[in-house]
Amino acid sequence: MNNQMKVLLAEYTTAHDPVLAREGRAMLGVLEESFSRCGYEVVRPDGGDFAEEIGRIAPACDMGLVIAPDNLLSTFTMILEQHTHNLGCGFMTVALCANKVQTQKILRQHGIPVPGEPEPGKRVVKPVRGCGAQGVRRSSGTPGPGEFAERFIEGQHFSVSIIANRVVGEACLYFTGNPPLVLAVNRQLIEIDADGAFHYRGGETPVHPDREEEIVSTAKKAAEVLGCQGYCGVDVVVADKTYVVDVNPRITTSLVGIAACMDEEIADLLVAASKGGVPAAVHLPGRARFDTNGMVTKL
Question: Quick check: 2 pLDDT over 70?
Fold first, then answer.
């Protein structure tokens, strides 16, 4: 590996969103350590205006990756793509996935189960453009501006962490048609408090639930239908069917647990996927529990 190759890791929340900063710092730490071990020089924004920093630094880098809340990620990714090789999802797919109503409409059209219209008294209200469980709640009330309601699904919460090969951007150079790589199925720890608010507390990975094949198949189809590439997380609730409740076209907190168990380097996988060459499988000999502060406990 040419140790002169530079990678820009631009994580938004550590400097700009105190509520999500601990999660962002944990994800950034895992990536920074992996890229450093793989021989890359890691470059990060200094602070200040995030978009301007990406535009300033990216031209001198060989590749880059943006991590930011879904409603902001598309704009920052577009700037990155104008200046260097993007290791993450294309900005147009990011913009689509940020709109949860539009995402569900497309998934439904392709026969992928989604919660759908709410039933009387049993509904979830969430932001149309939200991040994680922020603003998500059980409520019989009317959604406010920028919110929508969907059916409440009683079931088990999982996420599927996937790395998809490049499908847009420099597709003429790198498209291989290889299927996405499933890193792991993760159990999500979701709490619903007395006021009905949802709280994401981390999870456990890898897990192998009874309906793992169905969970993985549904998540892969969702990622492919939406055109995701690079690392993405598909959140599902398993009940009578496996329902897709969210698609995150970016690094997610689950990576902190996965990286602690995985033999392969996440940096190598992201670079390979960005050129159509992600492997067919990875090796996770361990198991871990992780929280949103970056704490990992081997099980």
Answer: no
Mean of pLDDT values over 172-195: 86
Other beta carbons within 10 Å of 198:
18
Which numeric CATH code is attached to 6-298?
3.30.470.20
Does position 131 have pLDDT exceeding 80, yes or no?
A: no
Distance of alpha carbon 18 from alpha carbon 129, whole angstroms: 19
Residue type, position 191, single letter? E
Of the candidates 295, 293, 290, 297, the residue with the CA atom closest to the CA atom of residue 19: 293
Please state the domain extents for the chain: 6-298
Of 43, 88, 46, which is closest to residue 252 (Cα–Cα)?
Answer: 88
Print burial letters for 201-226: b (CB count within 10 Å at least 16), e (below 16). Answer: ebbbbbbeeebbeebbebbbbbbebb
Distance CA 289, CA 297 (A): 5
Q: Give the predicted TM-score (pTM) of the model.
A: 0.93
| Token couple for 161 | 């962490």
Q: Are 203 and 159 in contact (CB under 8 A)?
A: yes
Q: Tokens standing for 88? A: 């993450």
Q: Residue 138 to residues 5, 109, 119, 246: CA-CA distances in angstroms?
A: 48, 26, 12, 16
Q: What is the 3-state secondary structure (H, E, C) of 97-150?
A: HHCHHHHHHHHHHCCCCCCCCCECCEEEEEECCCCCCCCCEECCCCCCCCEEEE
